[in-house]
Amino acid sequence: MSTKEAHPDRYIDEMFANHTGVLARLVPGYAARDGQIQLVHAIHDTIAKQGVLLGEAPTGTGKTLAYLIPSIMHAIRSGRPALVVTANKALQEQLIEKDLPLLVNAFRAYNPAFTFSYQLIKGRSNYLCLREMEAFNASGLLGGAENLEEAQALSAWGLITNTGDQSDAPSSVSQRTWSAFSTSGDRCTRRACAFHEHCFADRALDEAEQANVVVANYDLFFSKLLYANEPMWARFSTIIFDEAHEAANIARRCFGREVSLGHINQLATDVSKYLGDHNLARAMRNTATPFFEEVMRYALNMDTPRVCEPDFVRAVELIDVVDDAMRAAKGKCGGCDDDARCGTCAYRTLIHDRAKAIIEQIQEFVSQSNDSTAYWIEKPYDAGRVTAQNVRLRSVPYRVGDQLSQRVFERYPAVIAVSATLTSGGSFDFIRDELGLTSTPPTRVTVKHKDGTETDGIDLLAHVWKFAPYNSNDGDDDINVRGLRVPTPFNYAKQAKFVVPLGIPWPISENDAIFNHAAAEAIKQLIHDCQGRVLALFTSWRRLKYVAEKLAGNIDYPLLVQGDAPNKILAQMFRDDTNSVLLATKSFWMGLDVQGESLSCLVIDKLPLESFDDPLIDMMKQRHPETFWNDFYFPRAAIELAQGAGRLIRSTTDRGVFVLLDSRILVKSYGGMMCRSLPFVGVSKSLADAGKFLTSPSP
Ligand code: SF4
Predict the structure, then answer these.
(1) Distances in Å between the alpha carbon of 97 and those of 93, 126, 215, 352, 529?
(2) 253 Cα–ligand 1 center, Å
(3) DSSP assignment of 510-557, as one string?
(4) CA 79 to CA 91: how far, in whole Å?
(5) Where do the domains of the chain lie, and which CATH numbers do they carry?
(6) What is the spatial distance between Cα 365 and Cα 258, in angstroms, rounded to a whole number?
(7) Whose CA is nearest to atom 3 of ligand 1?
(8) What would the pLDDT profile of 343-386 be if each residue is shown by its tens digit?
């Protein structure tokens, strides 16, 4: 350890100090923030002592640098890398293009010996597959002729690209054409592939294996935890979950399953192509089509969001024919010396494993054997468009906490979960429960002995999580999960106003038409009073369209509506034209960053209470009626509302009004918890106060 390293956390002062620190020298306008410094120290401590930190850091805290700097420092000192897991592409781009390059310079400035490398890693389908490209070049065919030009452009690009990354590919190429030139993990033959040595996906993986910091998204990380045992994913000493409020929901989707006619037809194509068994492939298609036609008929007649009827469809013939495929693919090809390097053997294994997974999925779906899983048939909203080709059997587990606890929190030495919104009503209880970090009473187990006798005991292997608020002076080694809420750097009392206008009917189904009308009128009034500068976020597309129609031609400011242009372009137009108005749905709810006057008034139409048409919500309500509302349903909505409200104040110079058109927040018993999840001080009940606040001089 150099003199500079005599104090293990001295680097924090040297990096973050105002005026004289490394960041102050490298970042124009840099200012240290109390919340950021608190978070850095807590993260440093958690990595050093090992454990889990739940860190709520409001917008403007600078949480990215707060988690990157201590985890990079630990990676450099320990030689064990850190993994940053993110929920969206924009954050990945920010990390790779802005924050990590900045920190390479910052660490070098702190100590020239402190160098580190970083790498973004994506799922296999994001990279050009050389095998698929070769298949196209050999045949010159790709689906319909309309894609031929795109395919030729992609093939030409494939010869010159260094990365093979979809984000570098010609922008004219559609997702459909890209899919034909890429492959998924369950169709890739890896080391047995003739193109393995030059494979773009494997090259990126090799580079990630050497990096000190790896950035990945939740989907990739969770799928690796479930299906693969690749050493690369075991070597991290620190895992950062950014946007951690999303982690459990994404885990549900990743740990869930789906089967469609397309999956079985794809398997049949591979049976024909790689096993040479055309009769079996035909039999698979001929059995799968009537099966999914029956599923489609059932789906069209369902009046519940979930399938709650075991054996609702006869699956035995389909299972038998997929079982034939599994058996046909079993074993080696018989014509090779080294099956580990034999492409035919590798295809056989992939077909075997996919057939096995499909059988298990159909069996589980039809028997609905798992109590804590929601089973449903996914189909287009419009009944006229439902076909056997577009229905899917879907299943999603409700409880993912146990899996996350075992596969992430118990497995890696330090896990830092950060977000602007982790608590609901000021409590970490909901997020701890979602992530599997609650202390459960020791489980009683019964052990059966060989002689037939049984003994009762406690499951000593069960992991116990102990939670406490983070306190830097606390030396209690038993505490392995800590929660920290750092203060906002913004002055909400001066910078913002929260308005919940009275007199608007509640947005409940009986009031749909009158609420839509009242919402359109209120938004029109706000646009007038605030001179445009309004972002209105809707919880339903139907309401957005209704309001857009009512406003078109009736306001004096440019109207931007989601769907009229790609989201990125709309967001930029809204930023650039200060007086414009943007109407959008939940895709703008998280991640939209508009600083300055362009976003002076944020409107949310309705509390984001989830619909009971959602199969997961329906299942939770039926199965856990005692805990559903207060432990699950309302806390989820509170976190989401806080995320949406977080679009308003993005810098210390922003001023703005948040108008919620749903006065249930003032009346209902859950409203207090929702209000406590928001950063505003006080609430006004008059719509006119919005415009008055914006025109009043800044205090
Ligand atoms: S290893 Fe082969 S099949 Fe797999 S992605 Fe690379 S080129 Fe494609």
Answers:
(1) 6, 18, 12, 41, 39
(2) 25
(3) GGHHHHHHHHHHHHHHHHHHTTS-EEEE-S-HHHHHHHHHHHTTTSSS
(4) 25
(5) 33-117+404-485 (no CATH), 257-397 (1.10.275), 492-695 (3.40.50.300)
(6) 9
(7) 188
(8) 888 899 999 999 999 999 999 999 998 888 999 999 998 889 99
Give the separation between CA 358 and CA 355, rounded to whole angstroms: 5
Beta-ladder partners of 414: 51, 238
C-alpha span between 100 and 39 (Å, rounded) = 19
The pTM of the full predicted model, rounded to 2 decimals, is 0.90
Hey, what are 355's tokens?
């057939």
Q: Out of 134, 161, 181, 193, give the residue to mutate to test ligand 1, the one with the largest number of ligand atoms within 8 Å of its CB.
A: 193
In sequence order, which ranges of 259-416 are alpha helices (DSSP H)?
261-270, 278-301, 316-329, 343-367, 401-404
- Nearest ligand 1 atom to alpha carbon 193: 2
* Cα–Cα distances in angstroms (integers) from residue 123 to residues 94, 99, 184, 186, 200, in the given order: 19, 22, 8, 12, 11
Q: How far does the centroid of ligand 1 lie from the alpha carbon of residue 309, in Å?
A: 41
Model confidence pLDDT, tens digit, residues 542-558? 999 999 999 999 999 99
% helix / strand / coil in the chain, to the nearest 5?
Answer: 50, 15, 35
Helix or strand (DSSP H, E) at 91: helix 89-94
> Which residue minimizes the CA distance to atom 8 of ligand 1?
129
Nearest CA to ligand 1 atom 5: 129
User: How far away, in angstroms, is 124 Cα from ligand 1 center?
Assistant: 8
Q: What are the pocket residues of ligand 1 if the criterion is a CB atom closer than 6 Å to any ligand atom?
A: 124, 129-131, 183, 188-190, 193, 195-196, 199, 201-202
Element (H, E) at 240: strand 238-241
- Backbone region of residue 194 per phi and psi (left: phi > 0; alpha: psi in -120 to 50; beta: other values): alpha
Distances (CA, A) of 491 to 672, 678, 699: 21, 13, 11
Ligand 1 pocket, mutate which of 183, 203, 341 (most atoms under 8 A from CB): 183
Per-residue pLDDT tens over the stretch 199-224: 999 999 999 999 999 999 999 999 88
The answer to whether 44 touches 12, Cβ cutoff 8 Å, is yes
* Residue the block writes with tokens 């350890």: 1
